[in-house]
Amino acid sequence: MSATSAAETTEATGTPLARLVAARRAAYRADVVTDDPPQLTRGSASRRLTDQVARVVMWASFGLAMVPLVWILGTVVARGYELLLASSWWTLSQRNINAADVGGGAVHAIQGTLIQAAVTAAISVPLGIFTAIHLVEYGRGRLARAVSFMVDILSGVPSIVAALFIYAVWVTTFGFQRIGFAVCLSLVLLMIPVVVRSTEEMLKLVPNGLREGSYALGVPKWITITRIVLPTAFSGIVTGVMLGLARVMGETAPLLILGPYTKSIATNLFDGYMPTLPTMINQDRTEIGLDSAMERMWATALTLILIVLALNLIGRWAARRSSVRR
Amino acid sequence: MANRLKVEDVNIYYGAFKAVEGVTLTFEPRSVTAFIGPSGCGKSTVLRTLNRMHEVIPGGRVEGSITLAGQDLYAAEVDPVAVRRTVGMVFQRPNPFPTMTIFDNVVAGLRLNGLRNKSELADAAERSLRGANLWNEVKDRLNKPGAGLSGGQQQRLCIARAIAVEPHVLLMDEPCSALDPISTQAIEDLIEELKTDYMIVIVTHNLQQAARVSDQTAFFNLAATGQPGKLVEVGPTPRIFEHPVHESTEAYVSGRFG
C-alpha cells in the first residue's frame, strides 16, 4: 500500500477521535501491508553479522565451560588410573599401609561410601517423595506453603551447617559417639531438598488430563497417584534421586566432622569410625610431599567419580526400562 | 423411567465466581443429550458436575440437587469415587495412560479397582474394545503402548476404557474436537450404538453433530463475559433446531452468532 492512500484515509470525515483512529490504522497498515514480493533470501549484512557474533559467543561459552571439566577429568584420570588397574585396589584396605607405601586398597572407603549413600537414600527418598506428593497432589493453603518454604531454606543450608547441627544434636546434646549413622543423618538433611524439588517438578509435568482420566474411571485418588502419576513421572524422579545421591556422595564437610577416617574395613554404621572415599582423599592430602600418598589421592578421586558415574548409568537404565512407552 | 438423571436448580462456582446459574434438566436412560452454546457458557462445567469431577478443581463447588435414580449424587454419604464409577467420562483430548499398553489402558479402571482375574480382564478388554469399534484395529497389538495409536484410535481407546467399568451414564466433553472427519464419523456411529445401553451426554461445538447424534439438545448461553452461564432452552433436538423458542437459540443454531 502506498503512502498516498494512507494520507487519503486521514481525510475521512467524523469526530476528531474517529479521524485519529482512522489515520493511525491507515498508517499502521501502510507500514505492515505491502505489495512488495516477500523477501525469502537471507537477511541484511548487519543481520548476518549479529548471527555470526551470537554463534561465536555461544561456541566460545561452551568451550570455556568445557575447559575445567575436561581439565579435571583429564588430570584425575592421568594421575590416578594406574592404582585402579591393580586388583588389590578393589580387594584390600589401607590396613598396615603407611603413607609412604605405594598403593594398597580402597575397598574400606568404597564400602563406607556406598553404605552411607544407601542408608541416606533409604531415608531421604521416601521422605522426599512423600513430601513432594503432598505439595503437588494434596497441598493447599498454609501448611503446603510452610513446607515449601522450609524446603527452600533447607536446600540453601551449607553442608557444614547441616553437619554442625547434627553434631550439636548427636554428640553435644545426646552425648553419642561420632559414627557412620550420624553422617547419614546430616547427609539426609542435604539430600531431602534435592529429592523434593526434583520430584515436585516431575509430578507437576504429569498432565492433569491423566489424573482426571483416572478419576473418571472411578479410581480413588491415592491409587491414581501410585499407579498413574508416579509411574508417568518415574524416570524424572529417578534422575532427581541420582542427582541427590551424587551430591551427598561427594560431600565432605559432614564426613570430616562426624565420620573420622580409619584405615581398616568398618561396615557397622552404629559403632566406630567409618572410612569413606572423601575422607580417604583428605587423609592422603595431608601427607604433603609423599608421591605415594599423592598418587593414592588421585586414584581415590577417580574411584569416587567412577562410582557416581556408574550409579547414574544404572539410574538411567532403570528409568528407561519402566517409564513412558512410545 | 426410574434411572433418570435429574438436575434441579443447580448453581456452579469456581471459588467466589458463579460460573453457571439455575440449571434444571432431565436426562432419560438410553438417550443422547447434546449441550451446545458459545465458548465459556458453562457446558463443560455442567457436564463435570454430573460425575462430581467439578470439585476436583480447587474452589469448585455446586449448589442445588443432582439425582440419579432418585439418589442425590451430592449427599453426604455418597462417595464421589462410586459416582464416577457409575457415570463415566470421555475428555476433549484423548488421554490414554502413557505408561500402559493398549490392553492395560482398557482394563485400567477394573484393575486399579482390584480386579485381578486374568480371564475376566481379557474378556472385559475384548468386549470394551469391540464396543468401541476398535477391536479389529488393535487385536494384534494389545501389548503395544496406547500412546502409539492415532488420535481417533486413542479417543476410541478412551471410550473403551470408560465403558469397561460398565457405567450407567457416559459423559463426553467435546470428544471429536481434536479429531479428523473420518474419526469423528467413527465416534458418532459408536454413540449411536452405545445409546442402546447407556445414557449419553455430549458437549459439542459442532451443531451438525448435535443434530445428528442427539435426541435432546440443551442450549447454554451467557449474557456477557463475567456473567454466569445459563441454560436458555432444552427440548427434543428437532424442535430446538427447527422451532426454537428463544431468539438467541434461533440465532445460534442458524449460525448468526457464536
- What is the C-alpha radius of gyration of chain A, as a whole number of Å? 30 Å
Radius of gyration based on Cα positions of chain B = 18 Å
Helix segment count of chain A?
A: 13
CATH topology of chain A, what is it called?
Answer: MetI-like fold
Number of strands of chain A: 0
Number of helices of chain B: 11
Terminal residue distance of chain B? 35 Å
* Proportion of residues in β-strands of chain B: 25-35%
Short structural description:
The complex is a heterodimer of chains A (326) and B (258). Chain A is mainly alpha-helical and 326 residues long. Helix content of chain A is 74%, strand content 0%.
In words, what does this structure look like?
The complex is a heterodimer of chains A (326) and B (258). Chain A is an all-alpha fold and 326 residues long. Chain A has a single domain, classed as MetI-like fold. In chain A, 74% of the residues lie in helices and 0% in strands. Residues 1-10 of chain A have low confidence and may be disordered. Chain B is of the alpha/beta class. Helices cover 34% and strands 26% of the residues of chain B. Chain B is built from eleven helices and ten strands. Chain B has a ten-stranded mixed sheet with strand order 5-4-1-2-10-9-3-8-7-6, sandwiched between helices. In chain B, α5 crosses α7 and α7 packs parallel to α8 (181-194). The longest helix of chain B is centred in the middle third of the chain and has 14 residues, at 118-131. Chain B is globular and about 55 Å long. Chain A binds chain B through residues 140, 207, 209-220, 223-224, 227-228, 231-232, 234, 322-326, and chain B through 51, 53, 56, 58, 81-86, 88-91, 93, 95-101, 108-109, 112-113, 145, 147-148, 158, 161-162, 165.
